[in-house]
Amino acid sequence: MTSKVYWGSPRQAQIGAEETLPAKLDLILNRLNLRDRVKGETVVIKMHTGNNIITSTIHPVFVRKVVKAIRDGGGKPFVADVNWDTTGAEERGYSSETLGCPVYPAAGPDEKYFYVHEKKFKNLEAWKVAGNIQDATFLVDFSHIKGHPSCGFGGAFKNIALGCMVGETRGAMHDTVHFDKYWFAEKCPDEAMRKKIIDSCPFGALVQDRKDPRELHLHTEPCNQCGRCLKVAPAGSLKIDPVNFRAFMEACAISTSITLSTFAPGKATYISLATQMTPVCDCFGFTGMYILPDAGIFGSDDIVAVEQAVLDATAKLPLIEENMTASLRKYLGHEGHPFARMHGPLKDPYKVTEYGEALGLGSRQYELIDVLPVDENAEPSRWFISAT
């Protein structure tokens, strides 16, 4: 089945507000029929409010447009994110005054309000969905696209997968990367050799285990799978295996499916803003230089399709290598999606759409519909700045 994905280009034919991305968001909301779908609904707008001094999260102008559409349709909107990000969100422009709706911690201020869902996956058995998310009757997943050191990139899936679960579950999801064994201590009994393996990693990704000095612990986030450690480690003692890196991506797909199962069919829609894309997640609390040109804004009722469309669009963009940190640029890969080039080939960002489709969350086949095509033959427009 082919799903519709609505898209607004970041480019303009003329100088004018009506061709900017916020205006194109309005057109996407119309095509999604959002106003007609939310009457009487309690609508959670799940987004990342960021923390600390970040400036690249979704601008309040965009959020307010979504809020207004929901209110126009008779819905009751609120914005939700994890408690440590909503605390102080007003410092980054996210308040009821600027957005037109309240901002709530998804699982309450102490993350004690949640619902438990049972599903076995690696080290996980219980998934704790934030109470304010599950209590809502309609979901607008409004995600900001960026790179991510755990899974290559963050978008619609990750916005739901982590932001709609409590901290205990989020931590366990990250720990899935350690479920399948990658270090075999019996193959490397020599302490000096273990130190050589640790020192071979330019990212500091390999460390001595805190509980057992004979064990090594791999931090997959900084690891870009360069293979330097494998050249030092005795044969069979260490594996850099896809199963460890992809476990987190599969956990994200499962987590998303659990959260979406709490909403009735047709009671969710997805918007992704692919601008000001940086190498790491917005939860890092700062904004570095942008490493990809803007790709625009995307909207769909199919989470798999919208994620696939975003990845396909960003795959065509050139990495702005001079904007990357020296540490990332030094070991930049030469092939694959730009996000995988930064974070390593085993962090293939397309895996989450594969897992999501396998779980029945949507289709990777999509029709991209430009809501306002750029007129390449446009004549120069006359414009002026009013003095009044």
Write up this protein:
With 388 residues, the chain is α/β, with parallel strands linked by helices. The protein folds into 2 domains: 3-176 and 243-370, Rossmann fold, CATH 3.40.50; 181-240, Alpha-Beta Plaits, CATH 3.30.70. The protein is built from 15 helices and 14 strands. The protein has helices at residues 21-31, 34-37, 60-72, 83-86, 96-99, 131-135, 156-161, 167-175, 191-200, 228-232, 242-260, 303-315, 326-330, 338-343, 351-358; strands at residues 3-8, 42-46, 76-81, 103-105, 114-121, 124-130, 138-144, 146-148, 152-154, 206-208, 216-218, 268-274, 296-300, 366-370. The strands form 4 sheets. An 8-stranded mixed β-sheet has the order 4-3-2-7-12-13-1-14, with helices on both faces. It is globular, with a radius of gyration of 22 Å. The model has no long low-confidence stretch (mean pLDDT 94).
Q: How are the SSEs ordered, and which strands pair?
A:
Blueprint: E1 3-8, H1 21-31, H2 34-37, E2 42-46, H3 60-72, E3 76-81, H4 83-86, H5 96-99, E4 103-105, E5 114-121, E6 124-130, H6 131-135, E7 138-144, E8 146-148, E9 152-154, H7 156-161, H8 167-175, H9 191-200, E10 206-208, E11 216-218, H10 228-232, H11 242-260, E12 268-274, E13 296-300, H12 303-315, H13 326-330, H14 338-343, H15 351-358, E14 366-370
Parallel strand pairs: 1-14, 2-3, 2-7, 3-4, 7-12
Antiparallel strand pairs: 1-13, 5-6, 8-9, 10-11, 12-13
Helix pairs in contact: 1-3, 11-15, 12-15
